[in-house]
Automatic annotation (TrEMBL):
Residues 147-200 are annotated as: Domain III. Its main location: cytoplasm. It comes from Nocardioides imazamoxiresistens. Keywords: Cytoplasm, DNA damage, DNA recombination, DNA repair, DNA-binding, Hydrolase. The gene is ruvA. This is Holliday junction branch migration complex subunit RuvA. GO terms for molecular function: DNA helicase activity; hydrolase activity. Has three domains with a flexible linker between the domains II and III and assumes an 'L' shape. Domain III is highly mobile and contacts RuvB. CDD domains: UBA_RuvA_C. Residues 72-91, 107-126 form the Helix-hairpin-helix DNA-binding motif class domain. The keyword Calcium does not apply. Belongs to the RuvA family.
């Protein structure tokens, strides 16, 4: 996984930015709020998430690791892909999104283009126990998550990257959740998830 990208801002477009990293221009798809904080010619560091499809590799950029963690987590809900996950974070700040899910606030979630009432209810049902309380902040790149569900999207993405389906990855993540404890070890949880999948 490409956890973050650091370099000089080469261009800022309507939906993406290009960072010059050692002479290589890396394009990141970003929400408007992220793009607004970038200035051409200045150094920038963006947390990132690589989305792999059969016909494309798309890198999404975020202000911080907390946004990236939520972006990856909301995609574990049925019917939420990377574009919709990005739209959710474009409309709602991380804590507003956590609060909307925790409070079962369908009205707030339906402010996001592409989310109807049924979709909002499904997102709430699937994420309520995993998204964390408002004020929960993911750690910076390279640090071990301190608490909450920040490890879940990382293990899930690792399993999918190794060829397991999203559904199989969901089951494996749920299976190893009791082992997470207060300070989850993502690498150990990923190994445990792989063991649970190989037994199945």
């Amino acid at each position: 996984m490409i956890a973050f990208v650091r370099g000089e801002v080469a261009t800022v477009g309507l939906t993406s930015a290009v960072l010059d990293v050692g002479g290589v221009g890396i394009e990141l798809q970003c929400a408007p709020g992220t793009l607004a904080g970038l200035r051409r010619g200045e150094q920038a560091t963006l947390s990132s998430s690589l989305v792999v499809r059969e016909d494309s590799l798309t890198l999404f950029g975020f202000v911080d690791a907390d946004e990236r963690s939520l972006f990856e987590l909301v995609q574990t809900a049925s019917g939420v892909g990377p574009k919709l996950a990005q739209a959710m974070l474009a409309v709602l700040r991380p804590d507003d999104l956590r609060r909307a899910v925790a409070d079962e606030d369908v009205k707030t979630l339906t402010r996001v283009p592409g989310i109807g009432q049924k979709g909002a209810q499904r997102i709430i049902l699937e994420l309520k126990d995993r998204i964390g309380a408002p004020g929960t902040v993911a750690t910076l790149p390279g640090e071990t998550p301190s608490a909450g569900a920040a490890w879940r999207p990382q293990v899930h993405e690792g399993l999918v990257g190794l060829g397991w389906s999203a559904k199989e990855a969901d089951k494996a993540v749920d299976a190893v959740a009791p082992q997470a404890g207060a300070t989850p070890d993502v690498a150990a949880l990923l190994r445990a998830a792989l063991r649970s999948l190989s037994k199945a």
